[in-house]
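In full, the data:

***
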Amino acid sequence: MNGSARVMLALLAFSTGAGADAGNARTGASKAEAILAASKRATGAAAWDKPQGCFEEGTHADGAIHYRTRFSLVAYGMRVDSDRSGRTRAMGFNGVSSWLATGDGKVDVRSDPVSLRDGIVTNYLSVNGFFFPDRFPATFRYLRKAREAGKKFDVIEVAPEGGRSFEAWFDVRRHLIRRVVDNKAVPPITVEADDYRKVGDYTIAFKLNIFGPDGAVADRGAVTSFYCGPIESSIFDPPVVPRFVQ
C-alpha cells in the first residue's frame, strides 16, 4: 500500500523447455525484487529497518469511523481500535490467530486456515512486508507492464508465506505502490493508494480507497497521523475475558 520454510516451485530440468522456464522464473523474480527495492528507497530506504513498529490514526467510511492502528515491523502483529458514534471495537492478529472484541465485552478468536490466510495478507500489506523479505518471507513474480490514464505501472505478483497471492501495482516513475488487487479474497477487492506525503523519514499514502468486485467504491480511508517507534507485542494478542466465580 517470515521465518519458516517456503513452498518451493520444483522445476524439472530434463528438457530444454524446462530449462528455459527456470531461467524465465528467475528473471521474473529478480525484476520484481528490483522494483520492490526501488519502492523501499523511494519511501524511506533503511529508515524502515530501524523501528519496532508504527502507529497510524485516521478515518474511513467517509469519516464516520475513527481508527487507530498499531503494527509491528519485526514480526506479524497488528491491532486496530475503532469508534463509530461511541460504539467501539478492536480487532487484531498476532501471527497465529485473528480476533474481534466488541464493546459489550465479547471476544471472538479464530485460528482456522481461512482466518490465518486473511490475517497474514492483511498484516503483510499493512506493513509493506515486501520491504522486509527476511522478516516476512514471500515469493515475487513480475507479471506485466500496464498503462492507465496516461500512467505506467509495473505489476508484480506477491505471495506471502502462509497467505495467498495478490497483485501489487507500482508507479513506474515514482516507484510508489498505487494499487493492490486481491482476486482471491471473498469477495475480491481492489485497494488504491493516493496522496503520498512525507512524514519524518517516511513517505506514505494518506488516502486509501477500497473497491468491490463490481468496481464500485466500498470504503474510503484517510490517514490523519503516522509515526514509528517502540511497541509492545502483547497488544496484538486477544484480550483475556474475565471469568467470574460464583
Summary: The first strand starts at residue 53 and ends at 60. The chain has one domain: 16-236.
